[in-house]
């Protein structure tokens, strides 16, 4: 079973139990607070994640991600958790702009 490790959340492991479901689904299933202003619809970039290792284990860019990449709002190392699925292990971080004020990050 793939695992998403959130490095700046004290290496929090999140098991990917339903491979067809988004990373945001699994983050919420693990009861981790994660910014997602549009409700996981791919209409904003608040649910961004910065991939440190394992980009090859993430689904291809969605149309929404490509649009934001073209606009310069999504860096090459960033993906939208509401749009991606994982096929293998990934190590990632919450980008500074997406951190929630009530969460302690490592």
From TrEMBL:
GO molecular function, one term: iron-sulfur cluster binding
Protein name: (2Fe-2S)-binding protein
Gene3D superfamilies xref list: 3.10.20.30
Membrane-spanning ranges: none
Sequence ranges assigned to domain 2Fe-2S ferredoxin-type in this UniProt record: 24-86
SUPFAM superfamilies reported for this sequence: 2Fe-2S ferredoxin-like (SSF54292)
Species for this entry: Rhodocytophaga rosea
InterPro entries, A to Z: 2Fe-2S_ferredoxin-like_sf, 2Fe-2S_ferredoxin-type, Beta-grasp_dom_sf
């Amino acid at each position: 079973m793939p695992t998403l490790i959130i490095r700046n959340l004290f290496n929090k492991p999140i098991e990917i139990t339903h491979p067809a479901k988004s990373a945001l689904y699994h983050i919420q299933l693990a009861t981790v607070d994660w910014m997602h202003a549009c409700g996981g619809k791919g209409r904003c970039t608040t649910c961004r994640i910065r991939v440190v290792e394992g980009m090859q284990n993430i689904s291809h860019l969605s149309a929404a991600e490509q649009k934001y990449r073209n606009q310069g709002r999504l860096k090459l190392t960033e993906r939208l958790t509401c749009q991606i699925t994982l096929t293998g292990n990934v190590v990632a971080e919450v980008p500074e702009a997406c951190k929630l004020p009530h969460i302690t990050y490592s």
